[in-house]
Amino acid sequence: MSEYKIVAGTASSKFAHDVAIQLNSKIEDVQISNFSDGEIDINIVNSVRGDDIFIIQSTCRPTNDNLMELLILVDAFKRSSAGEITVVLPYFGYARQDRKAAPRVPITAKLVADMIEKAGVDRVVTIDLHAAQIQGFFSIPVDHLLGSMVFVDYIKKLSLKNPVIASPDVGGVARARTYAKALNYDLIIVDKKRDKKNQSEVMSIIGDFKKKDIILVDDIVDTAGTLTNAATALKQDGANTVMACCTHGVLSGPALQRLSDSSLDSLVITDTIPLSKPHDKIVVLSATDIIAQTIDKIYNKESINTMFDNL
Fold it and tell me: Which fold has domain 4-146+289-308?
């Protein structure tokens, strides 16, 4: 009888080990190294013939290296006669390049989806895609988990006096509505414009937020400009407290300094991307439980819909 085996990419080594512990399993012995010119070398130590493989690898920074490592891992298992190969992408890099926002630009999220599929993947599991329609870039099954599965219970335990869910932009309203429905909170929207990459300006705030405890929800926090600008605007206009829940802590460039200097009370992220260093305002929650549950259900041919029941 075939078994399932968990493989840890170097970008998600701790994450994968934590998933394996929850499944009472172990990480498959795979040697990953680099040649002197930087090319990636992979060797699967034991036979995996007929086994179902779950490769866990976030394509976070360095994005291109981690993506290439993932593709080579898939190819290695495919050529080793593995059974079904599932790629678990806690964080799907290039997801923000999901459409032609200007003339003569690529749709890189589609390109990455094609590369993953062409490598020989049978199924993809991921968390909080930047745009849900990216699932349609694949012609193989995609299990799209939601960050709210991790954050909702945490928010409930805070017992905030006057909580309100806030979307930091119009594009995130559907995501914010999921939180508002699960928690039975009101919803407000921060309207913004973005003139340049990684730069945004708050234009107006839609909804009642004065003397309220604001919970900004988003899929990604990158340079933290959007969140810190929103927090400043909300606090200046009468919000009591402002916290943010963002699934993927990219936190590039000036992000950590902006958080330190901002009026944002706290930023809650998950471990889909390893946090480079601790920060006083950052709380890290683990998404390994929902990944472990999903792997178990996929292997046992069970529906994962029950995981969405409370959302």
Answer: Rossmann fold (3.40.50)
Residues belonging to the active site: 192
CB atoms inside a 10 Å sphere around CB 72: 17
| Residue 40: both structure tokens together | 């990636």
Residue with tokens 């119009």: 170
Q: Is 246's pLDDT higher than 90?
A: yes
As a whole number, the mean pLDDT across the chain is 94
Q: Give the predicted TM-score (pTM) of the model.
A: 0.94
Residues 51, 5 contacting (CB under 8 angstroms): yes
**What percentage of the chain exceeds 70 in pLDDT?**
95
Write phi, then psi, for 2 (nearest 5 degrees): -70, 155
Contacts (Cβ under 8 Å, ≥6 apart) of 196: none
Among the CATH numbers 3.40.50.2020, 3.40.50.10540, 3.40.190.10, 1.10.10.10, which is that of 148-285? 3.40.50.2020
Say if residue 62 is preceded by a cis peptide, omega within 30 of 0.
yes
| Residue 34, both tokens | 């680099």
Identity at 47, one-letter amino acid code? S
pLDDT at 201: 63
